């Protein structure tokens, strides 16, 4: 009980500063990020499964929409681990609509080469080849995906980072194409929602997106489109996860 009391006192003391910083960022972030990302960015979000876009990248997508950057999405599987692929494809399109991505900008790869399976390692060269083709066809100059930790450690997430890293290190990306990867954090930071903001400010990456309260509601609405995935623990995730509120991204 004493420990709970200490936590409550700490939250009460920290809350005013956290919310001041949050509202300050709301006023300032658009100008800062506009300078970092450039005015003509055509962004491509690369994900492994339907729901990754809402569960992990909603702050980035809504931040890019705020800056009026066109966004494309490339999903490397239909999320068919429990034979729900067709349902999950429709849920992804609904979520993207909430997040401001038109269906014409969404590509879902449904191939046996990329099964939704944490026990399968996707072929890096194959992923990289498809990704590069998509970048070139859509004239992409900003790629966003997972970092080496994959946020949750899922091997399919990590495979996307490996492919992007390969393209970047081998100089195969188009000239001027920037790569941003989503920072993975420890379990404690992952589930303290806006209380993580001070840590994010202290350890900020190259781009930091913090959602307004209205945008957080929009992010939750996008996540609610994935009805087939809303088990009890994911409902807790929606309540407590920092990734529905804050995205810190690092450039390769």
TrEMBL record:
One GO cellular component term noted in the UniProt record for this chain: endoplasmic reticulum membrane
Keyword field: Endoplasmic reticulum, GPI-anchor biosynthesis, Hydrolase, Membrane, Transmembrane, Transmembrane helix
What pathway is this protein a component of?
Glycolipid biosynthesis; glycosylphosphatidylinositol-anchor biosynthesis
According to UniProt, the reaction catalysed is:
a 6-(N-acetyl-alpha-D-glucosaminyl)-1-(1,2-diacyl-sn-glycero-3-phospho)-1D-myo-inositol + H2O = a 6-(alpha-D-glucosaminyl)-1-(1,2-diacyl-sn-glycero-3-phospho)-1D-myo-inositol + acetate
EC number from the UniProt entry? 3.5.1.89
Provide the GO MF annotations for this entry: N-acetylglucosaminylphosphatidylinositol deacetylase activity
Q: What is its main location?
A: endoplasmic reticulum
> What's one GO BP annotation on this UniProt entry?
GPI anchor biosynthetic process
Protein function:
Catalyzes the second step of glycosylphosphatidylinositol (GPI) biosynthesis, which is the de-N-acetylation of N-acetylglucosaminyl-phosphatidylinositol.
State the similarity comment: Belongs to the PIGL family.
Annotated protein name in UniProt = N-acetylglucosaminyl-phosphatidylinositol de-N-acetylase
Species of the source: Myotis brandtii (Brandt's bat)
């Amino acid at each position: 009980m004493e420990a709970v009391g200490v936590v409550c006192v700490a939250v009460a003391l920290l809350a005013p500063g956290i919310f001041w910083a949050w509202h300050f960022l709301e006023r300032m972030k658009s100008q800062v990020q506009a300078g970092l990302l450039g005015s003509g960015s055509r962004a491509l979000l690369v994900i492994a499964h339907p729901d990754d876009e809402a569960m992990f990248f909603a702050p980035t997508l809504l931040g890019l929409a705020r800056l009026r950057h066109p966004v494309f999405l490339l999903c490397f599987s239909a999320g068919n681990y429990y034979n729900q692929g067709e349902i999950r494809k429709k849920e992804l399109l609904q979520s993207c609509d909430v997040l401001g991505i038109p269906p014409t900008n969404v590509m879902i790869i449904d191939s046996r080469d990329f099964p939704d399976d944490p026990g399968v390692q996707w072929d890096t060269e194959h992923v990289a080849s498809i990704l590069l083709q998509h970048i070139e066809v859509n004239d992409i100059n900003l790629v966003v995906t997972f970092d080496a930790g994959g946020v949750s450690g899922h091997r399919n997430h990590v495979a996307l980072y490996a492919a992007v890293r390969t393209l970047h290190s081998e100089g195969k990306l188009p000239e001027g194409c920037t790569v941003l990867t989503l920072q993975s954090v420890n379990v404690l930071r992952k589930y303290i929602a806006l209380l993580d903001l001070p840590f994010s400010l202290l350890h900020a990456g190259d781009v930091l997106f913090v959602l307004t309260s209205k945008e957080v509601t929009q992010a939750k609405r996008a996540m609610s489109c994935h009805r087939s995935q809303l088990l009890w623990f994911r409902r807790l995730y929606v309540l407590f996860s920092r990734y529905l509120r804050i995205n810190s991204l690092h450039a390769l």
